[in-house]
Structure formats: C-alpha cells, structure tokens
Design a protein that fits this description.
236 residues, alpha/beta, Rossmann fold
Length: 236
Amino acid sequence: MSGDPGKQLPLALPHRPALSREDFLVTPANEEAVAWLDRWPDWPGHALALHGPRGCGKTHLVHVFAAQSGAAILTAAELPGEDVPYLLAHHRAVVVEEADRLMPDAAVEEGLFHLWNLVKERGAHLLLTGETPPARWKGTLPDLRSRLSTAQTVAIAPPDDLLMEAVLLKLFFDRQLRVAPEVVAFLLRHMERSFAAARETVAAADALSLAERRDITVPLIRRVLDATDRGNSATP
C-alpha cells in the first residue's frame, strides 16, 4: 500500500469510478455489445436494448456510448417527469437505464411509450438497458410491448476470469493499492462474479487496510468476504 500509513485515516471519501472508453476492457463476454454501440448511428432500427446481469458493465458501456453519441442518460424512474420534446431537441440519442426495473408502473410505461414514439419521429436513437431482454419485461401497456418486441437486443455475459482479473487489478490500481497475485487469485475463486461485487470488495478492503494500517493480504480479503456474506445473509 502506497503512502505513509501513519498519515492515513479510514475516511469515507468518495471514489469516482473511471467510465471512459479507455477504461473499458473488451473480452468475449462483452465484445458483441461493444460492436453494436460502435455501429451507432448505423443501427438497423432506432432502438437497441442492452441486457445482462447486475454488475456486468452496462453502466460503463452507457457512459462510453454517451461520450461517443452525445446521448442523454436517464433512469426509468426519471421518465415520467422528463420533458421529452426538449430532451430530443438537444440530443440525437437517449439512454434509459434500468428500463425494466419499475415495470409494471403505469407512469413509467407511458413515459417510455411517449419517448419511443418521439425518438422514432425525430430520427433519433434510443438505448435501453435492463437485466433481461425486453420480451421478459413485466409491462402491461400493449402498444409499448409491441414496440419493445421490435428492438434489436444484445446481451452482455457475466464477466469471465480474464475480465474479472483485469477489473480487480484496475480497481486496486485506481486506489493506488499494490496487491500480490495470490490476493487476486483468491478473489477470483471466492467472490461474486460481478463488477459491482468487485468494486464493493476492493472498497471494503481499502477501508479495512487503512483502519488497521495493514497491507491487503489474503487473510484480510477473507475477512472482507466473510463480512459481506454475513451482511447478505442478514438481509431480509
């Protein structure tokens, strides 16, 4: 661990994730999704749905796409209150993250239906993200379900070993932490296979090592994972 440990305190300082294209790691798990976003604006239709499990990298890809396209980024919860005509007057593309999260919700479905129609009318593009493909979303608005069925869909698979190792190394590097190879190997064998879990585990390990003024070792990581397991089992 870099720096003078005598001067480090376990403060809850925010850690800003790196979300640029250069920070995104392309592997077989996500290369098809990357290729589709790189094709913009030459999509076969005006809508693309990107789906994959929590922590697979959808949000990172959304930010890469927004930097490339100038897209506005919304969540499904923001849809009902959004001024869609104003939004599309300033952006050629719109992203709705977690589009499946609040369905069925009448206001969200009406908002997405209105956005879909206006995007098509204006010749713009719509990128939707969710954990499952649109055919499995729990919407009840028939006209919206019909439109969602026409969207091009692309999946991101759960991260493979190569990608998870690269992500862990980068997360430690971003925090200026040096760890031995056996620490990363232990994490690959025992942690949940997701980017979200990797971020949370590295943050917890950083906090614990600062609090105890210790290097990040396998025993310390084991304690972090044990604490995470206890926390998850205690969640109703």
